[in-house]
Amino acid sequence: MSDAPMISVRGEAVLEAEPEIARLSVHVQSQESDRRTAVDRLTERNQRCLDLVKSYGEAVERLETGGLSITPLLKYKRREGDVRAYRGTVWIKITVSDFGILGELITRLGDMERTYVDGPEWELRRESEVYGRAARQAAHEAVERARSYAEALGSRLTGLVELSDEGLGRHQDTGGPVQLAAAYGGLAGAPEEPEPIDLEPATQIVRAAVEARFTVTPPDLDTR
């Protein structure tokens, strides 16, 4: 093991970036006294919802069904077979890359019968270059900090012993999701589409940190 003196430092970077995607969760429901009718209503409403989302083409990056359930709702006495209704729910997950259509899409989804819309959740893509840029800046800061310490001691850096990544973190700035629920009554005969809601994308804050150890030449402490 080398007897060369070492300097240990920590490098950090904090970057702000605009979000790249927005995620929505949509729950479509039906509730009927008959199980088959509940399933049929749910199927119809789910298809209308999917057709609406697909009509936006490439602006929607991803569309998937997150889950489906048909649940019997029991009466208060909860005796066997004492069912007052059946409730069906489909969970649809939507990823939007074109924010220009987002406000309109949310309000149109929220205007559909028996729907609940939660979102948007602003995010960077997993492979976003912002993460790599933050990591590089953190490493550069570690080198500069070690070099400053070495110069203060009359030394210079001679090698890297270890570099460890503390991980990348993403934090969303202020601003919460919009939640819209359509009325349980039918919307037949509604004369106009709802007005698009104005949305402001939330700034994404990416943090990176590294710990590093460098070997240095022997310090010249007598001249300091």
TrEMBL record:
Pfam families: SIMPL. InterPro entries: 26kDa_periplasmic_antigen (IPR052022), SIMPL/DUF541 (IPR007497). GO terms for biological process: DNA damage response. This is DUF541 domain-containing protein. The lineage of its organism: Bacteria, Bacillati, Actinomycetota, Actinomycetes, Streptosporangiales.
